[in-house]
Amino acid sequence: MREAVIVEAVRTPVGKRNGALAGVHPGDLSAHVLNALVARTGIDPAAVEDVVWGCVSQVGDQSGNIGRYALLAAGWPESVPATTVNRACGSSQQALDFAAQAVLSGQYEMVVAGGVETMSRVPLGAARTGGVPYAPSVLARYDNFSFNQGVSAEKIAQKWGFSRARLDAFASLSHELAAAAQDSGAFDAQLAPVGADGSKTPALRTDEGVRRGTSPQTLAALKPVFQEDGVIHAGNASQISDGAAALLVTTPQKARELGLIPLVRYRAGAVAGADPVLMLTGPIPATEKVLRKAGLTLDDIGVYEVNEAFASVPLAWLAETGADPARMNPLGGAIALGHPLGASGAVLMTRMIHHMRAREIRYGLQTMCEGGGTANATVVELVD
C-alpha cells in the first residue's frame, strides 16, 4: 500500500500581537519557512509538485492566494503551483491532509503543506468587513445565535461544569510547560529564527507569548470578556499571534532517492462536524473518527496535541475521551505559545513531530477545533 511520510517540519517562532513579527509581510514570513525547508532538506524547489497553504483571513496582506505569492517571494521557480485553503483554525492541518491524500493517491510524489497568519496586520474578523457570512436561514435555524467562539467557549464551560479556577489552573499550566520546554531546548531544532544580520526585522529566536510566573492568582485580576458573570477571559484563551510553518510530504521511496530520512508516517486523517452553537466540541467526534480509521485506541497514542483555543476546549475533550492528561499538550499550547490561525495546524504538527522524535513516541494525535463546528484530527506514526 502506498504511504505518505513527512521528512521535515519547520516553523517560525510565534510572535505576539504587535510584536517582533508585526512588521513582516505574511508572504515574506511564509517564504522564510519555505526556504528553511529547502535549506534543511537540500531539495530542488522545482521538484515540488504543489504547495498547499493554510490561511484564514484572506484579505489585505493575505489576499490573492497567499500560498502562490509566498513561493514567489521565496524565489522558487515560477513553475511551482500553490493553493490557499481555509478551514478556519484547522486550515494548515487541512493543508497537510490534502497534501498527504495527494501523495497517497499517487497523483503527487512531493508536496509542501503549511500555513501563515499575521494577525497583527490582518486582524481577526477582517474578512467579514461589510458583510455577514451567515445566511438568514442559518440564523433562523439556530435561533439567531451570534456564532461567537468566545460565547461557545462559555457554553462549553457551563455544560461540563468547569469553574473559572479550573480554567485558570489549566491556563497557568500551559505557560509553565511552555517555559520549561523553552528552557530545555525542546523547540530549538524545529525553529527557523526570523531576522538575521542585516535584516530590518527585529530578531525573534523563540516564541514570544510565554508569560513566566503566570498563576491562577495573577489571572484572577482579568475580567470575563464574553459575559459579565462568565469564566472566559484573555488569560485562559489563545493568544492573537503571528507565525508560519511548513512540512515536506513525500513517499518513502522518493525520500530514499533524495537521501532524506522520514520523521513520521501519515497514518490517518479525519474531519468531523458538530453542534455549531457549542462550535468547539468537534475534536471529540473527530478523535473517535480518526482512531477508527487508523485502527488504534486512545491508549495507543503517546502524545495528544489538542489546540487550546480556550481552556474549556481541551478540558471538555479530556472529560469526554478519558485520555491521560499528562499526554496532552506536554510542551504547553496556544494559551502560552499563541494561535496564528492559518499556521496553527502546521505549528502544532511540527511541535508534535519533534517531540515524538525526541521521546521516541510511536503515535501522535493532533486535533483542532474550528469555527462553524468542525474539527480536524490527524494521527502520525514515528518512522524508525
Automatic annotation (TrEMBL):
Residues 262-381 form the Thiolase C-terminal domain. Residues 5-251 form the Thiolase N-terminal domain. CDD domains: thiolase (cd00751). InterPro entries: Thiolase, Thiolase-like, Thiolase_C, Thiolase_CS, Thiolase_N. Keywords: Acyltransferase, Transferase. One of its GO terms (molecular function) is acyltransferase activity, transferring groups other than amino-acyl groups. The active site is at 89 (acyl-thioester intermediate), 339 (proton acceptor), 369 (proton acceptor). Gene3D superfamilies: 3.40.47.10. It holds the Pfam family Thiolase_N. Belongs to the thiolase-like superfamily. Thiolase family. PANTHER family: ACETYL-COA C-ACYLTRANSFERASE, BLR7806 PROTEIN. This is Acetyl-CoA acyltransferase. The gene is fadA.
